[in-house]
């Protein structure tokens, strides 16, 4: 793989990391701030989505 492709993949992984961090923050906020009105449920959904992004990020980081 050439260096330009490696750089693009690294940039994608970094962007995914930013998205994951944002999703984690949103999930945490929903879990804390909306207790008793379904916030926990939505927090879990968002947390699962962040987990899926983590999986994709790991796969991208392991591309040779």
Search tags:
84% helix, 0% strand, single chain, 64 residues
What does the model show?
- The chain is mainly alpha-helical and 64 residues long.
- The protein has one domain.
- 84% of the residues lie in helices and 0% in strands.
- The chain is built from two helices and no strands.
- The chain is elongated, with a radius of gyration of 15 Å.
The percent range for helix content is over 70%
Number of helices: 2
Global Rg: 15 Å
Q: State the end-to-end CA separation.
A: 7 Å
User: What's the shape?
Assistant: elongated
Residue windows where pLDDT falls under 50 for at least 5 positions: none
Q: Tell me the fraction of residues in β-strands, as a range.
A: under 5%
Structural class computed from helices and strand pairing: mainly alpha
Secondary structure blueprint with pairings:
Elements: H1 3-33, H2 39-61
Helix pairs in contact: 1-2
Compact summary:
The chain is mostly helical and 64 residues long.
